[in-house]
Amino acid sequence: MRLDDEQESSNYEIQTGRSGGIGGGLGGGNLLGMLLPLVGSRFGCGGIAVVLILMAVMGGGLNLGSLTGLQDGGVTPHQQSQSPAGSTELTDIQRISLKVLGSTERRWQEIFAAEGQTYPPPTLVFYSRNGMSGCGAAQSAMGPFYCPADRKIYLDTDFFNEMKTRFNAPGDFPIGYIIAHEVGHHIQTVTGLSDKVRKAQQRASEAEGNTLQVRMELQADCYAGVWAARDQNLMEPGDLEEGMRAAHAIGDDTLMQQAGRAPVESMFTHGSSEQRMRWLKKGLDTGNPAACDTFAASTI
Q1: Distance from CA of residue 70 to its chain's centroid?
Q2: Which pLDDT does position 170 carry in this prediction?
Q3: In whole angstroms, what is the distance from residue 222 CA to residue 272 CA?
Q4: I want to staple 188 with a disulfide (CB 3.0 to 4.6 A). Which of 35, 194, 224, 231 is the partner?
Q5: For 232-276, what is each residue's pLDDT tens digit?
């Protein structure tokens, strides 16, 4: 991506403290003990199985941003030291992330303004290994995620090394894709869609709830494509291929296969590799958020 001249977002925080009592890494029993009841209450035993499979594959690099019931679990916040914007020297990867976030702010401000609305941008929170969010504990094992309770995106930038080494998805466009995907969940929150979906999931069967979740994730993928399509000056040769490679790498079927399990569609919570690539490309091809209505699509 061409980011040299892009203006960085000022909507960020840096958590410099670490929360205690969480347990580190994939093998942290405390983390697993907290996550599984929360996932199970929303997605049932199938959802728990998916978490176990994906954690085994990704070494914990799991995006739980859409499991918005985390705040219901009642994780007691620990005190965190937060550095206000501009008070801490930023790393190169943090600056790239903020340039991407700034770009998403400008594009979505334009989209909202065209509808006579004001876009409220999210805040990007950087943390290292352990942090705290309005939805409870934040751990690098969870991957980047969006918390609707405080409307913030949480990111341990070491995850991008995982994309490069573990998932063979190098390059800077995957960084843009991932951040823009989480911004997509923010769009779903501010428009009220995510709340409607959560209520529908509570009334649905396990399989139906998973399907609704997949539609949420694929729409966020499509929104990421819309951002990129509307900021074509950022795109360089090879960026599209990098994005498709990243989308393929984090498809539910690919992750299950890597875990040595046969893909089971009823257990998908983020979509297959093919679905994720297709909806990302749909956003890229159209640049139109209305084309991202995965809930109106007869098939996804």
Answers
A1: 14
A2: 61
A3: 14
A4: 194
A5: 777 777 777 887 888 888 888 888 887 888 888 878 889 999 999
Bridge-based pairing of strands 152-155 and 145-147 is antiparallel
Where b means 16+ CB within 10 Å and e means fewer, 168-187 reads: ebebbbbbbbbbbbbbbbbb
Q: How remote is the C-alpha of 281 from its chain's centroid?
A: 17
Report the length, in residues, of the chain.
300
Residue whose C-alpha is closest to residue 35's, from 136, 156, 155, 125: 136
b/e burial code for range 91-104 (CB count within 10 A of at least 16 → b)? eebbebbbbbbbbb
Residue type, 190: V
Kind plus residue range of the DSSP H or E element containing 123? strand 123-126
| Six token digits for residue 104 | 């998403």
Kindly report the backbone phi and psi dihedral angles of residue 138, in degrees, each rounded to the nearest multiple of 5, phi listed first. Answer: -115, 125
Give the C-alpha distances (Å, rounded to integers) separating 273 from 59, 67, 169: 19, 20, 13
Cα separations (Å) of 109 from 93, 118, 154, 295? 24, 7, 21, 24
**Cα separation, 39 vs 47, whole angstroms:** 6
Q: What are phi and psi of 262, to 5 degrees?
A: -75, 135
CA distance 33 to 251: 25
29: buried, middle or exposed (CB in 10 Å: 19+, 13-18, 0-12)? exposed
User: Running DSSP on this structure, what letter comes out for residue 126?
Assistant: E
* Dist. CA 168–CA 171, nearest whole Å: 10
- 196-214 pLDDT, tens digit per residue, is 999 999 999 999 999 999 9
Q: Say if CB 131 and CB 19 are below 8 A apart.
A: yes
For Cα atoms 155, 160, 165, give the angle at the middle one, nearest 5 degrees: 150
Give the separation between CA 74 and CA 79, rounded to whole angstroms: 15
Closest CA to 275 of 199, 219, 232, 228: 219
